[in-house]
Amino acid sequence: MKSFLKLEPFANGYQAVNLSPNAALSNAEAQLRTPDGAYTTFRTYDKYFVLNLRQHFDRIEETAALTGKSVRLNRAALQSEICAALEETPSPEARIRLSLDLSVNLGEIYLSVEPFAPRPANLYQSGVETATVRMSRTNPRAKLSRFLGQADAVRRSEKKNVEEYLMISDDREILEGLSSNFYAILRGELFTADEGVLAGTTRKFILDLAAAGNVPVRLRPISVFELNRVDEAFLSSTSRSILPVRKIDRWTIGNGAVGPITAKLMKAFDAEIRKNLSDLRIAE
Q1: CA 106 to the chain's CA centroid
Q2: Each residue of 25-50: b (16+ CB within 10 Å) or e?
Q3: SS3 string of the chain?
Q4: What domains, with CATH codes, occur in the chain?
Q5: How far apart are CA 100 and CA 57, in angstroms?
Q6: Mean per-residue pLDDT pooled into runs of 10, the chain (284 residues)
Q7: Contacts of 19 (CB under 8 A, 6+ apart)
Q8: What is the pLDDT of residue 93?
Q9: Spatial contact of 63 and 69, defined as CB atoms under 8 Å apart
């Protein structure tokens, strides 16, 4: 069983150390045993296929650079280790987290793998409820693992029965979710924050779909004071794809149903996703 591995740089590859030989750990459990550093999380399709794999690797290296550390991943060797872990994962699809150690042994990588469990289908038909929280990232362009602890602390303290917490700035602008990007549609235009947020890998794919579908895009956040005028809203992440939002705090979005532009983008996402996947078994 290889659900949690430490990958130590060795010669032209990595030396894998199995940190959970007797029991499978969830990604969250593995993260508690991982040093502070850069991380990325993604899901697989049909066992070995991933959306925007190169961007995930790029983001780890860029996050390290933003903290003043220079690290270059051995991408071919890393893909090989991921595939070896997936071979021992019974689930046909998995959720993978890569964490680069930036605090103890620079360059070591922690790899955790858990079965991928999609959201229930009814949530994509009815939309989800969200809540706002006053919060922002210290270093928005860096995906640092310490933020995972901060996000978990918010979920524990707020204790609301919602899909996601949306971070709002001091100016009351909706920036992003704790683990997602946020989008609002007003008067046929798609709004999403560009500054002060972590640009998710799925976000770029969605913005490309919007451009291809002639949906105008405004790279700016909406304010909570605009919520009464928002027609549609949705979240995106590697595990959620496009997930409609029907409520933010006490505000019902539009008429409370999945809107036409959101539905259009969801359909395009499903139609185009498999044309844009990378095979982990083929080195980037």
Answers
A1: 24
A2: bbbeebbeebbebbbbbbbbeebbbb
A3: CCCEEEEEEECCEEEEEECCCCCCCCHHHHHCCCCCEEEEEEECECCCEEECHHHHHHHHHHHHHHCCCCCCCCHHHHHHHHHHHHHCCCCCCEEEEEEEECCCCCCCEEEEEEECCCCCHHHHHHCEEEEEEECCCCCCCCCECHHHHHHHHHHHHHCCCCCEEEEECCCCEEEEECCCEEEEEECCEEECCCCCCCCCHHHHHHHHHHHHCCCCEECCCCEHHHHHHCCEEEEEECCCEEEEEEEECCEECCCCCCCHHHHHHHHHHHHHHHHHEEECCCCC
A4: 4-117 (3.30.470.10), 121-273 (3.20.10.10)
A5: 10
A6: 90 94 92 96 97 96 96 97 94 96 97 96 98 92 93 91 96 97 98 92 96 98 96 97 97 97 98 95 89
A7: 4, 5, 6, 30, 33, 110
A8: 96
A9: no
Please state the pTM of the whole predicted model: 0.95
How far is residue 58's CA from residue 181's CA, in Å, rounded to a whole number?
19
Neighbours of 95 (CB within 10 A): 20
Q: Which residues have a Cβ under 8 Å from the Cβ of 11 and sit 6 or more positions away?
A: none
